[in-house]
């Protein structure tokens, strides 16, 4: 075991001892998997056409309906997982639900994860992919979506390509995005007792490892600080019982200062990435119904 992994393990064990959080256990699970890559569920292979290519030695999956695309819309979906967790059932299910409703194409990058990699590796791979896609896809048909860490990564990526004057997607939709891995916003302490999903101490460990030795103050790690003037048609879905919610208000205010509008859809009492669990209950949690409809309408009206 390397000294870096040993130090990280000690930190995580301390978190578990102090707070017993599920999030910390997840960190340990992924810590020893090395170069983690996603597995496409069998039902996805059965129900959809899925092709795979590599970008900087990472898989990128393109998913289309079995009976053919009926909508020119192309969505790049960037999954969450605190930069340590890979694609989970809720990500695949959300993508399949969107494809079923819209008949579109979804592109899912399996980007590099910490602790083996840091933000430089991840941003490099994602920027290469984005540049390839924006050359092939009509920007008016292109949407970037991301949840949690994937939402933060999506925003950081667009801030970076915006600085390079590269074409923006027509829409960006972020679900409970992680905008600042430092988690210094004092309002987080007020929200945390109501958040059953996330723990600040565990998240900070993941964020520090994603940042590496020199990235803790980089906007590529903390897109709350990044350039916002080139962004367009950004929508954020967030719940008030999510410790990542307070930073969204700061981002929205910063955007206003440079003349960029960010539309925030806030659901009272909703927790982190609650929209991704829509499929779990056939009756559908009442906190999910309206914002999920709004999200689908944004996609349909692109």
Task: Please bin the fraction of helical residues.
Answer: 40-55%
Q: Can you give the mean pLDDT?
A: 90
Would you give the CATH topology? Rossmann fold
Domain unit count? 1
Using the 3D structure, state the CATH architecture: 3-Layer(aba) Sandwich
Order of helices and strands: HHHEEEHEHEHEHHEHEH
Main β-sheet, spatial strand arrangement: 1-2-4-3-5-6-7-8
How many strands, which pairing sense, and closed or not: the largest β-sheet? 8 strands, mixed
Structural account:
- The chain is α/β, with parallel strands linked by helices.
- Helix content is about 40%, strand content about 15%.
- Strands 1-2-4-3-5-6-7-8 form an 8-stranded mixed beta sheet, with helices on both faces.
- β5, α6 (about 150-165) and β6 form a beta-alpha-beta unit.
- α1 runs antiparallel to α2 (about 20-30) and α1 runs antiparallel to α8 (about 200-210).
Report a brief summary of the structure:
The chain has 302 residues and is an alpha/beta fold.
Topology of this protein?
Elements (H helix, E strand, L loop, with lengths): L2 H17 L2 H10 L10 H6 E8 L2 E8 L8 E5 L10 H14 L2 E5 L9 H18 L5 E6 L1 H15 L7 E5 L11 H5 L8 H12 L22 E6 L5 H13 L4 E6 L18 H15 L2
Parallel strand pairs: 3-4, 3-5, 5-6, 6-7, 7-8
Antiparallel strand pairs: 1-2, 2-4
């Amino acid at each position: 075991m390397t000294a870096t992994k040993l130090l990280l393990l000690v930190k995580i064990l301390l978190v578990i001892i102090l707070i017993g959080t599920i999030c910390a256990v997840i960190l340990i699970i992924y810590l020893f998997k090395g170069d983690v890559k996603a597995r496409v569920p069998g039902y996805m292979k059965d129900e959809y056409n899925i092709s795979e290519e590599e970008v900087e030695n990472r898989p990128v999956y393109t998913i289309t309906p079995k009976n053919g695309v009926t909508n020119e819309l192309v969505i790049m979906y960037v999954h969450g997982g605190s930069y340590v967790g890979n694609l989970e059932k809720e990500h695949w299910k959300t993508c399949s639900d969107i494809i079923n409703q819209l008949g579109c194409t979804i592109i899912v990058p399996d980007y590099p994860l910490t602790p083996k990699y840091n933000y430089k590796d991840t941003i490099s791979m994602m920027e290469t992919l984005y540049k390839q896609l924006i050359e092939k896809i009509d920007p008016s048909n292109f949407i970037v979506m991301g949840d949690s860490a994937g939402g933060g990564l999506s925003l950081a990526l667009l801030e970076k390509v915006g600085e390079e004057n590269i074409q923006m997607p027509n829409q960006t939709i972020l679900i409970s995005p992680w905008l600042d891995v430092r988690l210094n916003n004092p309002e987080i302490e007020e929200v945390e007792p109501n958040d059953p999903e996330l723990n600040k101490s565990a998240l900070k460990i993941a964020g520090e490892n994603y940042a590496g030795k020199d990235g803790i103050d980089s906007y590529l790690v903390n897109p709350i600080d990044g350039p916002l003037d080139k962004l367009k048609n950004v929508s954020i879905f967030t719940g008030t019982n999510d410790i990542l919610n307070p930073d969204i208000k700061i981002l929205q205010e910063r955007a206003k200062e440079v003349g960029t509008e960010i539309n925030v859809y806030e659901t009272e009492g909703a927790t982190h990435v609650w929209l991704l669990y829509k499929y779990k209950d056939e009756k559908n949690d009442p906190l999910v119904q309206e914002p999920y409809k709004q999200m689908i309408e944004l996609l349909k009206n692109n």
